[in-house]
Fold this protein.
Amino acid sequence: MSAPTVSTDRVVKQGFLARYGTQFAMPAGILVLLVVGTVLSDRFLSVGNLTNVLINMSIVGIIVVGMTFVFVTRGMADLSVPATLAVGGLLVLMLDDVIGTWPAALIGLAVATFAGLVNGLLIGYAGLNPVITTLASGTIVLGIAQAFVGGVIVYGEDPAAKDFLTGRLFDVVPMIVLIFAVVAVLGHLVLSRTVFGRWTYAVGGNPHATEASAVPVRRVKAGAFVLTAALAGFAGVLLGISLQAARPGIGAGYEFDAITAVVVGGVSLLGGSGSIPRAIGGLLFVQLLTNILTLQGVPSEPQGMVKGALIAGAVALDVYLRRRGGRE
Amino acid sequence: MNTVRRAFDSDVFLGLVRYRVAIILVATVVIAASMVPGILEFRVLSLSLDRIGTTALVAAGLTLVLITGKLDLSGGAILALSGIAAIGLQEQFGQVPAALIGLGVGVLAGAVNGFLVVTLGINSLVATLASMLFFRALCHVLTDSRPFSGLDPLFGLAVSRPIAGTFTLRTILFVALLVILHVWLTRAVAGRNLFAVGSNPASAEASGIRSNGYVFGTFVFAGFTAGAAGVIQSLSVNTGSPVFGESTSLLAIAAVVIGGTRLEGGRGSALGTLGGLLVMAILTTAMEFSNVPAYIQSIVTGVILLLLILLDRFVSGKKGRDLSLTALLRSLRESRRNPETERTHAP
Amino acid sequence: MSTSAPALRMSGISKSFPGIRALTSVGLEVAAGEVHAIVGENGAGKSTLMKILAGVYQPDEGTIELQGEAVRIAGPIDARKRGIGMVYQELNLVPDLSVAENITLGAPPSRFGFVDRKALRARAAAVLDELGAKVHPDDLVGSLPVSQQQLVEIAKAYASSPRIIVLDEPTSSLSENEAQALFRVVERMKAAGIAIIYISHRLREVIELADQVTVLRDGRLVETRSAEGITAADMIRLMVGRDLTDVFPKTEVPIGDVVLEVRDLSRKGEFDGIDLDVRAGEIVGLAGIVGAGRTEVARAIFGLDRADRGVVRVNGDPVHAHQPRQGVDAGIAYVPEDRKRDGLIPQLTVKENITLASLGEVSTAGWIRGRAERRVATDKATELGVSPPVIDRRVDTYSGGNQQKVVFAKWLATKPAVLILDEPTRGVDVGAKADIHSIIGQLAAQGTAILMISSELPEVLAVSDRIYVLHEGRVSAELPRGASEQDVMRAATGEVAA
């Protein structure tokens, strides 16, 4: 027995700000940063500096793509990224003289993906809490990686690969930025134009209704984690090759950077909304801010404080706007 | 498949689950003793308990937070920050006042978490992630990323020395705290209300329990215990360091989960956390004695954690009979008095 | 007692929600120590009236008097303070606390902040004893069977010394024995002078327990009378007799072969031995009161839930649906009862919702073909009359009736051979209702086999070619077209031997 369903005959009219505010906020914010940066430092608006920004954000950016899927499907967060990243980096360098860099890269990617599969099974199918599960699995994978490597730095044997990755296409576009751009575009296309992407939004928006609509909910949830692990592994491979050195701790902090970017970009933790461009926007915002601070001579550590405050601020704003808009 | 499912339904199995902390503890002790014959020596036990002391204090506060259904990842960072305050302010304020200020820092940090989660309504995972980043960065800023020493190494040494040949002050502190918490959780009105808040906040609110106040309070308490952990740790080694406590949060969560506290809230036990801590203490000591490297230890911790939450998942759907010893004893007494009494239970 | 004011008097209560007039000038009077039953079909207004009493809603018009004093109930906590105890169908207990702690939640007997265990046990035992409930105060609520949990919930309401207690469908998940235990508790409360409002679909219980009966229909008070000598038939007549003001167009359609065949479908505790047939072009109604098991049967046929045994066949081919995907592949579609929970993804657009179950049709190798998708969505939206047919708008900005059309559109896009509708016009305004009936008729004309669950008798009778009536998980009757409402209600309440 229930009261008659409240029907809203009138279209819910929202204020202009509420409806478009969230869409314009990020580009506006980035514009503001660009202006502020130019004002504060004449080195800011140079091609060299901005290219550096792009290079620095490429590795995290690849992970951000995966983390966006996790957020949208209401999978909360994947905290095993440092481990899967490390796996990619370590394996590619350990095996590059044995079977060649690119096959080694594939192996690194495969192992990282396998770890993601385990995450996916536990979280998507067994329904375990994603935070604790990825925390635990990350610890396990990292431990295994350390066992393998013996806790020392692994060096690469393929300077040619390094040159390739750290080089520039047509002497202008850094290779690594290009790869990131490709991943980002592919990720965006998958999320916004494929069946899997549509399912991802549906699962995050209303898992019950999605299940009742004959969508494989558990597979979708698992998929987000498999994807993130694979992308983290890929990022690790790239990082390893471009440094020609890696140690197990190489991935430390990347998960938080990715989460910061996604949250600042306005992708909701509750799932069902957001997009890759938004997440990348958030990443760009954070990176520009970091760059401005660095140019001002602020050392890296206080920047962490800024990041923390940013996350809190961005989410608080999101909560506020949602309450205002009447949608919980 | 049905026999497997029935096995999960049997009273024996459910009883095992209910007392799993005790069972795991016993199993751990047995395994450890067989691996390392000398492990049950008192001196060894005492030291291994002390080693887990820092994690234990953080775990105590975390237990309450988890019971209310929230998460707190910032324990390690608060720990480091408080330690830095306790050591760094010694010159200015004196050793004891500095230590007290360190405690205050922990409380304040907990209040920040409470503010983010309760007042701003931010999801506790994200909020404590953000505060963790913030506090950790603050540590680095304050110390220029370098550990530094305090005035007098002998001052804090007492904390980690066995008292009268038994346990260290730190050990006594955390055991006492957990026992007090257990009593509070099982006997005090506010403690019982905490379970209501975590289990069914709407129902709690309707009964006049101010859920928000409770949640805020647990974050402050968690900050306090993390602060205490940090102050004691820094004093015992006379060092303030921005990298202290980096893995503490994960270990603390593991201990709490091993101890049976549910991540979804509404169920938990301070004694369970104590049990979980003991398990981890014995395990790590046994592994160290067997020269098992640190990364294997973390693998073991991770695997145990996963297995346990898997087990919880499997069993959580079963509304079994109340299998506490008291309930079993009572039903025994009753059935002896009236042999016809039959307890109906869920299909 | 005869000269003092009644414990509760509600007069002239009216309440409207956007698009629906839930209550029109309803009155209710309950004396202390009286068991007053409220009966009516789903949507008659019972729960709205009780929610007003509980302080959840404010009435648009009308007054509430407690013990003769006019009051305004500000909210649920205020209601509790004023001595109104609510026991809902969804229990509000804390599973990990004991019975005694739940009963005294928020204010247990204590000393210096610590629970006084002896006093706690004693107080809880006293309450349970007074009610005659055989529940031990120290047991963990989570480990108790539902029937006992319910007793705890009642004890909790009783412990705050209320003047009025409302029991909302208390026996819906209880067995015969357990229900008897509940009745004894009700008798005790009655003897203690509490005014008891008892809402139930089980008319036999009403006859057994109630002193007075109020019948609501379509948001209005039909009659309040003494329960002395009342029969189920009397109540049915009052609940159901109405003029057919909404004309449901029914076109005669050629009926083909059996498309959906269900044999011996059973699920322990929910339904047993269900046999159904639905032919092409046929609209088969599935009637029964709440709790009879209709939705459960539908979900099992579709694959949302599992059955313990039984066979489902579509066009002769057996279907083993463990998941909705298998149901859809077999040509079955299910429009769910709870639109908000099971029907729509609120933040997705109309287009995205419509194509959700049939993305395979508009995609190649996983890539969604944008134009094809838009075409399907636009076609379906226009076909069903979603207004305005803007497919790029979020679906939660539409009215209930339009939302229901979107859900329909989604399932029609899967081109089903069998369409199962669960309360298809619930929460839908009259205009949209007529549209939906017309759509159902068109679908039948196209040869779809339709199984329609509805609690609204006029609808079922007007639209169906045949009606199966479910009672307590079994098919109690199969009625032909032209059966009367009384025929249906009798079978639905078990008056008719199965």
